[in-house]
Every structure is written in C-alpha cells, then in structure tokens.
Amino acid sequence: MIETSELKDFSELESRRRELLETAIETAKEVTGMPYLYGGNTPADGGFDCSGAIHFILHKIGLNPPRTSSDQYLWVKKYSEIHTVSSAATSPDDHSLAQLEPGDLIFWSGTYEPNDQRQTKITHVAIFLGYEKKDGRAVMINATNGRSYRGKKGNGFGVYDFRIPSTASKSRIVGYGTPPGLLK
C-alpha cells in the first residue's frame, strides 16, 4: 500500500486535502482483502462499491455527500465545480486534466449500464491521490473489481493507477472536482 510520504508534493497540499488522502489510505489499509461489493456502504457490509467508499471516507472527515456516484457528481457540480474532461483525452497529462488536484473526485460514465432513475450517466467515482515521487505515476483510490496498480489487478478499496480509458472503451472520464466543504 502506498504511503502519503510517497506522493509528490503531499506536504504542500492544503491541510484538508492531506486529511482526506490520509484518511482514505488508512481506511484502505484497514480493509485490505475486503472485496468490492455492489451496494456496500461500510466495512460492516463486508465491502464497498465505489460511491459507498467515497461516501464513507468523506463522512469520516466531516463532509456530508450523497450516496451514489451520480448524486456525488451532481453535488460537486452544484456546490463546487466540475471540470470537464475532453473525450479526446488519452493520458493524465491531457490539458483538460490540468486543474486536477489530489483530493478531487473523478467521475466516469459507461463502466456499466445503470438500471435506476439517475439524473446522469455517471457510474464510477474515485479520489485522485496525485503522482508518485519515484516515477511520476498518477494514482487514485477507490473501490473496484478489475482496475490495477503497477500491473497487479485488484478487487476492493485500494490504490490503483489513474488511467484514461482507451477511445475504444465504453467507459470514459466525464469530469472531476473538489468535494464541497473540503476547502474552507
């Protein structure tokens, strides 16, 4: 598991961003081995889904986000700001990701076909951790079954490589933004 000391410029972040990343990483250590679980909200459920993990972490630092990734997207859009990611983006270095900061929530669509009445097509959410000091690799933390970190496929809440889906993929990154209330 990655440590905050391994993240580039971690000590220069605002205190609340550091708190969010520390809380997320410590929680991932506590739940190591716990699998991805659709609908999972807390460790007591036996696992998290992506938005359940984000909901749990943000609550731990005193924020009050909605539960689903779609509603979390709308929450950031209404009370903070969503930065749209270009559909032509192919790497984390794309100009549309230039304002992405550690602690921002990243939102995807197309990771599955939603069958509920959500107001958006958002289907996945993660917290951007930043870049590793040793090689500049972009990393994020989220609950998943299938993403990887340094070539090792994972299942559950943990650290994963931040990659832009290929243009052939059904999924795409829609946007990102700072959780409302994170910065005071």
Give a structural overview:
The structure is a single chain. The protein has helices at about 15-30, 50-60, 70-80; strands spanning about 85, 105-110, 120-130, 140-150, 150-160, 170-175. The chain is of the alpha+beta class and about 180 residues long. It has a 6-stranded antiparallel sheet. The longest helix is centred in the first third of the chain and has 16 residues, at about 15-30. The chain is globular and about 40 Å long. The model has no long low-confidence stretch (mean pLDDT about 95).
Low-confidence stretches: none
Strand content: 15-25%
Tell me the helix content. 10-25%
Order of helices and strands: HHHEEEEEE
Please tally the helical runs, counting DSSP H or I stretches of 4 or more residues: 3
Strand order of the largest sheet: 1-6-2-3-4-5
Mean pLDDT: 94
The backbone outline, from C-alpha atoms, is globular
Largest sheet: 6 strands, antiparallel
Name the structural class.
Answer: alpha+beta
C-alpha-based Rg, rounded = 15 Å
Please give the number of β-strands: 6
- From the N-terminal CA to the C-terminal CA, the straight-line distance is 30 Å
